[in-house]
Amino acid sequence: MYSIGVDLGGTNIAIGLCDAELKLVDKGSVPTPQNDPEKIVKEMAALARLLIDRNGVMLGEVEYVGIAVPGAADDKSGTVIYTPNLPFKDYQIAEVFKKFLPVQRVILANDANAAALGEALAGAARGAAGCIMVTLGTGVGGGIIINGKIFSGSLNSLGAEIGHTVIAAGGRQCGCGRRGCWEAYSSATALKNMTSEKMQELSLKGIPSLLFEEAEKEGKVSARTAFNAMKRADTHAKAVVDEYIYYLGTGIANMINIFQPEVVIIGGGVSGERENLTAPLSAMVNAEQYTRNSEKKAKIVTATLGNDAGIIGAAGLGR
Ligand SMILES: [Zn+2]
Predict the structure, then answer these.
(1) Cα 246 to middle of ligand 1, angstroms
(2) What is the pTM of this model?
(3) What percent of the chain has pLDDT over 90?
(4) What is the rounded CA–CA span in Å between residue 60 and residue 245?
(5) b/e burial code for range 149-178 (CB count within 10 A of at least 16 → b)
(6) CA of 202 to the centre of ligand 1 (A)
(7) CA distances from 207 to 33, 204, 241 (A)
(8) Helix (H, G, I), strand (E, B) or coil at 5
């Protein structure tokens, strides 16, 4: 048997065909049509059909299609409730998809949750019963896997919005309206902002730093600037990275205290720093967590599936 995973993004629809072992057999992507939900679903179904046909698979051999949605989805009713960057609102996506491609079953999940499931089933946390994925990008996304299943709460299918838990009450303004959210301190955007603020402070005082040289090399201040200058032993850059890791670790220690996962997976752009990030982060989190004296501690690792986490996770929704 096979399953198909759809990662519905704001700019691209990526689809993967997976075998019974959840190995990616084939994948493809198309630009996401704008402003028309039905066109988007039609395009999705056409690409799924193409993958089935070119691999000699019969439609009846496809057990289900999983769709990772960039927003809130209700799997029970097969509905996309809302997507901030796509035109879906209370949309019967499962029913419309089946109209274009009559598969047995369509399963829905939020995209960050699906990515976490992908890493849990076939990536960085393979074999772990419980894991938490923290994705450091524009925001702080999250996915919580308990006993191999996505935890999304029981009220609005919007659980695991871990980025909007407050780690500094009354602190930095978050896009969600609250102050002091984890996302306002630990996203790639926050790291970039913290780097800019440090550079402004140094510039006012006329203090030299490799931060300026690294930013110039890149043509801008980015989430990489502080890490790059730190690797060249710049103390101001190290101060920015240390502060960033302190906030990131505070949130992770909170998650560990609640869920006691075997693995915490770091994904998103910042995870490209690999052990420059995970080594100091693990040391900080191990010292701060409630179970600091236990020999059994959550491992902090970086994601391994990259952009395929969404399609593999979506294809794993029925496993
Ligand atoms: Zn927030």
Answers:
(1) 18
(2) 0.91
(3) 88
(4) 49
(5) ebbbeeeebebbbbbbbbbeeeebebeeeb
(6) 29
(7) 49, 8, 18
(8) strand
CA distances, 142 to each of 68, 106, 132, 151, 300 (Å): 14, 23, 7, 11, 14
Question: Distance (Å, rounded) from C-alpha 310 to C-alpha 109?
Answer: 10
How many CB atoms are closer than 10 A to CB 302? 18
Could you tell me the distance, in angstroms and rounded to a whole number, from the CA of residue 56 to the centre of ligand 1?
46
How far does the centroid of ligand 1 lie from the alpha carbon of residue 159, in Å? 14
Predicted confidence (pLDDT) at residue 158 exceeds the cutoff of 80: no
Quick count: other Cβ atoms within 10 Å of Cβ 21?
Answer: 7
DSSP code string of 108-132 = EEEHHHHHHHHHHHHSTTTT-S-EE
CA of 173 to the centre of ligand 1 (A): 8
Q: 81-99 pLDDT, tens per residue?
A: 999 889 999 999 999 999 9
Measured in Å, residue 244 CA sits from the centre of ligand 1 at 17
Residue 315 pLDDT exceeds 90 = yes
* Ligand 1 centroid, distance to 207 Cα (angstroms): 34
**Gap between the Cα atoms of 241 and 244, Å rounded:** 5
Separation of CA 154 and ligand 1 centre (Å): 20
Q: List CB-based neighbours of ion ligand 1 within 5 Å.
A: 164, 174, 176, 178, 181
As a whole number of angstroms, the distance between CA 307 and CA 285 comes to 27
User: Given this model, what pLDDT does residue 104 score?
Assistant: 94
Whether 150 shows a pLDDT value over 80: the answer reads: yes
Rounded Cα distance between 304 and 310, Å, is: 12
- How far is residue 7's CA from residue 307's CA, in Å, rounded to a whole number? 10
Q: Cα of 276 to ligand 1 centre, how many Å? A: 27
- Give the mean model confidence (pLDDT) for residues 43-54: 98
Query: What distance in angstroms lies between residue 30's CA and the mean position of ligand 1's atoms?
Result: 31
- Please write the tens of the pLDDT for every residue from 6-32: 999 988 999 999 999 999 999 999 999
